[in-house]
Amino acid sequence: MSPRHSAEDAQRTRTAIVEVGTQQASIEGLDGLTIGRLANALGLSKAGVIGPFGSKETLQLEVLHEAVRIFIRRVWKAVANLPPGRSRLLAISEHWIDYLADCPLPGGCFITTASTEWDARDGPLRDAVAEAQRRWLDTLRADAEVAIRAGELPGDTDPAEVAFELNGIAMSLNQAIQLFRDDTAPDRARRSMARVLAAAEPQ
Amino acid sequence: MSPRHSAEDAQRTRTAIVEVGTQQASIEGLDGLTIGRLANALGLSKAGVIGPFGSKETLQLEVLHEAVRIFIRRVWKAVANLPPGRSRLLAISEHWIDYLADCPLPGGCFITTASTEWDARDGPLRDAVAEAQRRWLDTLRADAEVAIRAGELPGDTDPAEVAFELNGIAMSLNQAIQLFRDDTAPDRARRSMARVLAAAEPQ
DNA sequence: CCTACCGATCGGTAGG
DNA sequence: CCTACCGATCGGTAGG
């Protein structure tokens, strides 16, 4: 009740703002976030929402990073300790599809939405989105490289193409789920990803 | 100079508003369209911009349909007279990739942007986006069905999966071009689409 | 198709 | 973290 809050309280408020902001932005886009609606949803004043961040852009960047953390937690953490290679790419596929089919954010894949929202603009948000997407594609490509060297994928496979295709399947799945509410799509995506990751013929 | 305009003039103005609106919306999104900026870009008053349409939503719907017309003109018109089947799907792939690599709209593929922008919302715009995307996927699937029946694609191919995968590759390509400015991506997409459309082994 | 205007909301700040 | 406020802009309308 007192206006004198502890640093702990301030941190809790900050966290709550980012969490609710992530939910809202997954639906309305990062640019669709507004301080006023956020304040209303949280029972705070607008000054209370923007204060901890200084500007809307800083808040948007934090919201984006929170969405990336959620993705990593759901898709990467479970496989991070597996040895790199084809079997880990198959495990990633499973978790990725599960993440999209049972998404913790109401608007589906945040990075995909943010990517199409910012890909034709300039500035820190575009750069942050590009870097997050870049890192994920690099992660996939690195595993594909290991798989090719180990003979688990055909020797003439282009590792960047594996990342490119898996990413495309994930975006197509995200659209099927969000735009068409098609619950047969996860199985389709599973088959498609398995085809991209088809094992090399034994010599 | 006279405020008394012909119906022809009125039509010209309407067309100009939709055209400039399509350019702007391809960058800022359909929701990012504003009457004020549109009026400014066109040298009109806000009333002059919104008047012919009655509401922003009607204008947004017309902008969306204009973007669909542009896509059809660039990707579909050139192949519409070819016989359906695998070779037409390959021709579509070529035109689709060319369209994305040398896009008439500054923001890249409008439908992809509109899809992620509206897929988590309700209303006429979401419905219109879904219908446009649905029609295109159905077109691809119908050609895949013909190709499978003709033995041009493997007999166990799922035609909906062909449409799903081609669409995913196109979205991945759109991202590579717009977000990463990666001009090696069109070739990658060509290889990926060719793989999806690999001919059935001759019996 | 214009001017002039409406209430609502935007991001953000001053001062406590 | 609040109240009270800022100028700017939003979509839209009245009246010509």
Describe the structure in brief.
The structure is a homodimer of 203-residue chains. Chain A has helices at residues 7-28, 35-42, 46-50, 56-76, 86-101, 110-118, 124-149, 159-178, 185-196. With 203 residues, the first copy, chain A, is mainly alpha-helical.
Layout of secondary structure:
The structure is a homodimer of 203-residue chains.
Chain A: H1 7-28, H2 35-42, H3 46-50, H4 56-76, H5 86-101, H6 110-118, H7 124-149, H8 159-178, H9 185-196
Helix pairs in contact in A: 1-2, 1-4, 4-5, 4-7, 5-7, 5-8, 5-9, 6-7, 7-8, 8-9
Chain A binds a DNA duplex (16 and 16 nucleotides) through residues 3, 5, 9-10, 13, 34-36, 44-48, 50-52, 54-56.
Count of helical stretches of chain A:
9
Gyration radius of chain A, in Å: 20 Å
Distance between the termini of chain A: 73 Å
Mean pLDDT across every amino acid position of chain A: 95
Q: What's the order of the H and E elements of chain A?
A: HHHHHHHHH
What overall geometry of chain A do the principal axes of the alpha carbons give? elongated
| Pair with the biggest interface | A-B, 46 and 46 residues
Low confidence ranges of chain A: none
Helix content of chain A: 55-70%
Query: Which structural category fits the helices and strands of chain A?
Result: mainly alpha
β content of chain A, as a range? under 5%
